[in-house]
Design goal:
With 131 residues, the chain is mostly helical. It has five helices and two strands, in the order H-H-H-H-E-E-H. Strands 1-2 form a two-stranded antiparallel sheet.
Length: 131
């Protein structure tokens, strides 16, 4: 844990909340590389950014397509969502019962400490599966 993870420095965790949860929940079943899990988390964070941070959907699509063109997509299933959500619920960025994320309102314009509803995280996860 980074003791200096405050303010703007928080943006370095973009995609990590979901990514670490994916990595941890799949650890015993398959070999998902850290970077692969983080990129999946970044894609889901872009999906959430459209809803919560008013990211233009066309911009979100560009970012998602670019990420997937460089890093590919990992195979996920709905079977892991409960485990993923359990890990997210225990993330160090959460406070006062809120699930906090780093999102983006535009390319190069991050926002942090965005409280995200559990159902929207599940929807972003399911949207990733369908990509």
């Amino acid at each position: 844990m980074d003791p200096y993870e405050n303010g703007l420095r928080k943006i370095l965790n973009f995609g990590h909340t979901i990514g670490h949860a994916i990595e941890s929940s799949l650890l015993s079943e398959s070999k998902v590389l850290h970077g692969e899990a983080i990129v999946a988390g970044m894609v889901m964070s872009v999906i959430l950014s459209v809803k919560y941070a008013n990211l233009n959907p066309a911009t979100g699509e560009i970012v998602i397509n670019k990420l997937l063109s460089f890093f590919g997509k990992i195979e996920l299933s709905n079977d892991h969502i409960i485990s993923v959500m359990n890990f997210i619920s225990n993330d160090k960025k959460n406070s006062d019962g809120n699930l906090n994320f780093i999102l983006m309102k535009n390319i190069g314009q991050p926002v942090w400490d965005m409280s995200i509803d559990r159902n929207d995280i599940i929807e972003a996860y399911e949207a990733y599966i369908k990509l």
